[in-house]
Amino acid sequence: MSKAQRSIFVGKKTYLDELTNDLKEIAFHCRMKGITQDVIALTANQMFPDAIQVHYDEKKGLFFPEKVGEKYSIVELYKSLYEGDEITFDLCIGSKPCFNKNKDFTISTKSSFERKLKF
User: Fold this and answer.
1) Half-sphere exposure (Cβ direction) of 77: Cα atoms closer than 13 Å
2) Dihedral over alpha carbons 61, 79, 42, 114 (to 10 degrees)
3) What is the pTM of this model?
4) CB-based contacts of 7, cutoff 8 Å, min separation 6
5) What confidence score (pLDDT) does residue 111 get?
6) Of the four, 53, 64, 90, 99, which is 20 to 30 A from 22 by CA?
7) Backbone dihedral angles phi then psi of residue 92, each to the nearest 5 degrees
8) Would you give the DSSP letter of residue 53?
């Protein structure tokens, strides 16, 4: 049985739950308005390289750390947002491509599509 060990509620539709089970395994469940799950993990790992890195498992819908420890990159990301820091997320670094519709009805691939969040 899994339960939330700690939670961080940053704002509307933006939260993180640290889950543990009977075997002391750790996973994270989180949401962030307008940001895809894989972009959350990649941004957290880039911003906090000294913390324990996480990866997103699409089948389970959870984030899993590389190992058990005290400081996780995804927790540090949510703490930073909670403290009022502005964070820029590049939506094109995820697994889904970003496209731009041009005025001449052509479609081009975006190399960068940034969204800034601050609470």
Assistant:
1) 29
2) 110
3) 0.89
4) 15, 16, 17, 18
5) 83
6) 53
7) -85, -10
8) P
* Radius of gyration in angstroms for the set of CA atoms belonging to the chain, rounded to a whole number: 16
d(CA 82, CA 84): 5
Whether residue 38 contacts residue 46, with contact meaning beta carbons closer than 8 Å, is answered with no
Burial class (CB in 10 A: 0-12, 13-18, 19+), 71: exposed
DSSP 74-91: HHHHHHHHHTT--EEEEG
The whole-angstrom separation of Cα 77 and Cα 40 is 9
Backbone angles phi, psi at 97, to 5 degrees: -70, 155
Sequential DSSP letters for 19-47: EE-TT--EEEEEEETT--HHHHHHHHHHH
Q: What pLDDT digit, counting tens, does each position of 23-32 carry?
A: 989 999 999 9
pLDDT digits (tens, 9 = 90+) for 66-103: 999 989 999 999 999 999 999 999 999 877 788 888 89
